[in-house]
Amino acid sequence: MPTVTFKSHDREVEVPGGTVISDAARMVGIEVSMPCGGQGRCGRCAVVVEQGEVQRRSVARLSPEAISEGYALACQTTVQGDLVVTIPPQEKIERRLPASQRVAEVAVPLAYDPSTDQTLRKYFVQIEPPSLSDNTDDLARVRRALQAQHGAEVPRLKVELPVLRKLANVLREGQWKVTLVLETETWVSPDGPPRVVDVKTGDTTSSLWGAAVDIGTTSNVVHLVDLLTGRVVDSASDYNHQIARGEDIISRIIFASKPQGLGELQGLVLETINGLLRGLAERNGIATDEIYKMTVAGNSTMIHLFLGLVPDSIRLEPYITTTNQPPPVTASEAGVEINPLATVDCLPGVGSYVGADISAGVYSSDMCSLQDVSLFIDIGTNGEIVLGDCDWLISCACSAGPAFEGAGVQDGMRATAGAIEEVWIDDSTFEATYRVIGDEKPRGICGSGLISLLAEMFISGVMDKRGNLNLGLDTPRVREGDHGPEYVVAWSSESAAGREITINKVDVDNLLRAKAAVYAGFSVLARSVGIDLSSVGRILIAGAFGQYLDVENAVQIGLLPDMPRDRFKFLGNTSILGAYMALLSKEGRKGISELAQRMTYLELSADNTFHDEWMSALFFPHTNINDFPSVLELLEQNRHL
Amino acid sequence: MPTVTFKSHDREVEVPGGTVISDAARMVGIEVSMPCGGQGRCGRCAVVVEQGEVQRRSVARLSPEAISEGYALACQTTVQGDLVVTIPPQEKIERRLPASQRVAEVAVPLAYDPSTDQTLRKYFVQIEPPSLSDNTDDLARVRRALQAQHGAEVPRLKVELPVLRKLANVLREGQWKVTLVLETETWVSPDGPPRVVDVKTGDTTSSLWGAAVDIGTTSNVVHLVDLLTGRVVDSASDYNHQIARGEDIISRIIFASKPQGLGELQGLVLETINGLLRGLAERNGIATDEIYKMTVAGNSTMIHLFLGLVPDSIRLEPYITTTNQPPPVTASEAGVEINPLATVDCLPGVGSYVGADISAGVYSSDMCSLQDVSLFIDIGTNGEIVLGDCDWLISCACSAGPAFEGAGVQDGMRATAGAIEEVWIDDSTFEATYRVIGDEKPRGICGSGLISLLAEMFISGVMDKRGNLNLGLDTPRVREGDHGPEYVVAWSSESAAGREITINKVDVDNLLRAKAAVYAGFSVLARSVGIDLSSVGRILIAGAFGQYLDVENAVQIGLLPDMPRDRFKFLGNTSILGAYMALLSKEGRKGISELAQRMTYLELSADNTFHDEWMSALFFPHTNINDFPSVLELLEQNRHL
Hints:
Largest sheet of chain A: 6 strands, mixed
Strand order of the largest sheet of chain A: 13-12-11-14-16-15
Helix content of chain A: 25-40%
Largest interface: A-B, 54 and 54 residues
Number of helices of chain A: 20
Radius of gyration of chain A: 28 Å
Structural class of chain A: alpha/beta
Oligomer: homodimer
Distance between the termini of chain A: 40 Å
Strand content of chain A: 15-25%
């Protein structure tokens, strides 16, 4: 009989060939975590097979990389010979980490050269002190020295009041040895004179800081970037403090239309970002006013609120922004607490519902330089979708509504501590197991939890393809509730609030409409350019929500198309990645502008095929079940079709 | 016997030929005002001879224009035949009017054409409202309409946050018919994109307002200018509120170096200017934010304090400004309460003590386009002097000290109500008569009063050419006082303070040093370019103080050179005139910049001939009395030489 050695626990056991690893483990007293009850759906029982032969019945939720590293699902993998197995600590499997603790690992572009790529540059100059025989004014002396010592073209050096106000003192305190921070070029006036952003005593050319920012409706992220090396030195994130005034874009726009509402929302997002900047500066031992440039990505509403632009017309037909290409502003104008004269550059968007987060994200994904077609998706309140290749790009936004963000669902909540983020329903008992963020008692269900719940309800037969709950099942969990039929996910004894956590028919319908809107978006986009969804080379899933999205579940409910799993790529927060690329290089900044300008925007509400596509998608997974072969196979296995 | 008809009083009288007109008037009960006691020195008794022949014994204080209009001094003009005489109301002769009531009568340049001269322009545009099939953003729609309807080159139209923040509402409230205020060109970036200064609902192209400002150390003046016609529509002035923190430039600079001092002084001048702007706007039925451009002239210290630049180094050797050519700023940056995005353009100066008031003033005087040499003088705390013609310009500043502004003299005061502004001393009795601003009881003596007093003291023999008072005279007015010999101008019974108003030897010495510094300035400048003062074609006297300066008196004490009186021209406030010219036209603005750049600055403290010239000028009128032939003649008449 083969021997299985559990290296991590220093135990071994002899088992018959064909035994599943989880059983082998249990034989020597090792409990492998299996929230889904060993059905191969949750992926929590992943172990590493270091040596030996195994057979994997399922690799659900394992990435190709993980599999090549030896990961296998303990409940779905059988012993075929002597094995050495490591059971990794549960933390290694947990993908979700509290956002504020995550430090992005962003690769610096290989060829980064600040002297050519960067618009910011520091110059150390030594200036001749004035005398009665040479009483040239301070500023002219600076110009003269700069020209003599750096040969820069500075006859029309642009100097603004804040610099002039400190110039006399800085020159004298620095004994006529100072460092000038110049912005040699901005994308709005590439031929304009270089601008003096700051002047400091002594030689400070050994550091140069910038910040890249993503303003999400829910979360804001800031990267602190060393502009000399290009490295993301640190990163921080926080909930957008605007959340207290509305969870989603539409409620924020409505709040902004109240007296002082816009100013209040602007203040709240500034409070968030300034807090993050202060924290980063402190943690890295720099002053915030040493940060001399900031790029900002975000959806069009977030950019409007950040800049204090009136967002009303974004909400109302025909859905118009004030501008999709905001001009660069100074930090002091914007209210951002970095160097007051630092440029704050909000990246360009495409339209009201395809904002700078998408143009930056698509740019960072590199799909616009590839020959074959990619599908880029960012699912949140709105599902933004971009289809294209190196020659063309078309985008649309489907008003998915806030259901996937936990709003509009009775027990929905944001993905914070206490939210059920994954659910498993036993095929025979219909009992639920779940995982809660922070390992607390549950308070509600977040977006990824809802997708997981819907998939499990559908696959286990708790509900049918129309979303009707099966009241005939032998379980107290499916019952008639105040809002029609409902399924009890957690009993009151288990929950933090002391009440049951349920999902009812109204919730299911809301979610069904939302997922149908996204899928209809794919279909309309693909049809509008005459290609078939199945010919798409890769599906790029962007956004924080995308990071926690389970592809299997999403395909099972028909939110994502059923395609070979290796075509799905999770890109994480592409919005901040694009902002980082724009911060680093003129090329990057220009690239995003050009991309935003050439991206076509398809207004779905003006498209006459959208409604039909949406109606067809109002089923789990879809009217055309044949478009979802893997789901069909699973259902056939479970004999629920 | 000839008949004299006093038309204004409807009386007539027969008098023997050779009778002075003032005697003829007295014969029919008309008292002509003669503060100088009929000595032909004060010019207050001017009458208009409408018909008939007279002989003028003196035309002191009458301009050639006045003489050609028939003006004659009643006390110095004899009847030669039948006359018709009008005695004008005293107000017509009074040159001094309270500053706040004076409305500048500024001629609009004949060729003013706003479409070519002006950098500001309004465009009315009618914009296609957006629809689902044309969801171009607001700003891009504005650009498109502007281009289609006005053919303007606007691909890179510069738009700033405040305009973007209101754009959505203005477009919709205006039902897509709006007026854009564009600044099509600024002197710093003539090739840059036009900048949107404002956007307003409806068609507001029938008005376009600007303001020209002169920030004097003592007085601030604002012209409200209709930029469509070029006309100065209204004007207002006020004391610079900084006066409460120091009367002169040096004490202001010292105050600025205290903690919060600079901010306080900046706040005070802004308070002054904003108050004037508000008053002008209200009086003319416009809103302050309809004022879209402002040009500012003033000495370098005033410009530094206005912009919040550190002025310390202006005071300390080697006397350096932060910049002589401040960049244009927006009104909101500067703290000026006109349209927040209006350009506030501080005109360029030459150096620490030859500021924008002088470059603007010289430009407005047109001396730089003439073939023969002019001497431009602005006497205040500092006497700024410019010598030159169309080919060259050289300038200097002589630290006259604040004596001529009433400071550093025991009973000196500013030229406000209660200040003695003119004095006459009887040659035989040594009794003083004087004129007081506001016709009140006197409280002190202002600059023009001091010059008048010194001249009268010298000519009447109360003091000698060294400024020593003659204690041997038979009058109680010359006496030994606490600070040495003194002359009593007003007894305590006459004065408002109930104490005597006197001038003592210390005061006289201060004034002597001040006037010598100015005259030495002329001499050094003339010598430095190898010309003789007497060959100067015209002497241009600028500044508010110059307006009240009496040439005869100033020549008598040797403050001004003794030249034919028709070479003296009083230009009034040339600083505001230059600011107005820069406001009106690009040419004007450019002209002042070019002038400031080509004007040579001679640092007197670094010139080795200055001290000798100054020593020679420490006499009334000068060591070389032969350079003052008219004074010599007067002294010989009075037998005091």
